[in-house]
Predict the structure.
Amino acid sequence: MGQSISSQPPATPSSPPSSCPMHNAPSTGCPIQHNDPPAAKPSGGCPIDHSSLNTLNPANQMPNLPQIPIYSQAVPLPTERTMSSIPRVVDGETGTDTRQTWEYPSPQQFYNALVRKGLDTPAEHVETVVQIHNFLNERAWGEVLKWEKRVAQEGDEEPHLTRFMGRPGEMSPKARFWMLAGWLLPARFNTEPPFDRHDWIVRRPRDGTEVRYVIDYYSAPATPNGDPGFALDVRPALDSFESVQQRVTVGMDDVWEELRERGWGKSDRGGTQQVR
């Protein structure tokens, strides 16, 4: 979850589910175009507005793409959309006492977005790319919940993702730090930058507090069975004293855990000495 101040960042290695039909899909970064100014449109229901190809939904910064091919493509693609496990409305908040979750784009919408941004991705590979995309988002939300549990109070409802933005061309300060570390000590630290970045705004129903999380997506070595590897660095942005305190606490916990794994602090008589 957190990142030790003395180790390489990606602390959450992940690989796609074994059912994924393809394990060598190239990393394409975020497929969403972020240059057009967002239009003021209330969120709710389907996060993609199908009325215009030039409008971005302010809740997710996704282009408004239809469920039909708008560019030439070699094969037809499914238009079914998958519901995520990531909540977007908690019970009672809309007056309907229903819990809603974010809905992933269909492979057809995803392909339209890729082509719109100028990314040359074969249509026959898009379903695999969508599976990986959805899998990584689920893992990212799981990491967010680990952070949120550290500050949750008894009786708190589950936090939810209120909006998000892809920022693939902007390296976070932490990613820049690890790039510098890799340049100085390439034998110890990774020299590859993250292939994508997202900023997620999470709302806590208890008091309506909104917390920004930064997510850096890294490629990682393949798993023993040949699946592609990914690593996520998920943490609250340093936008508040509480977030700074969380980051410091988790960082120190990681340091002590690493020391324990190396056997530091053990006495000759066995056991572990108290570090003062």
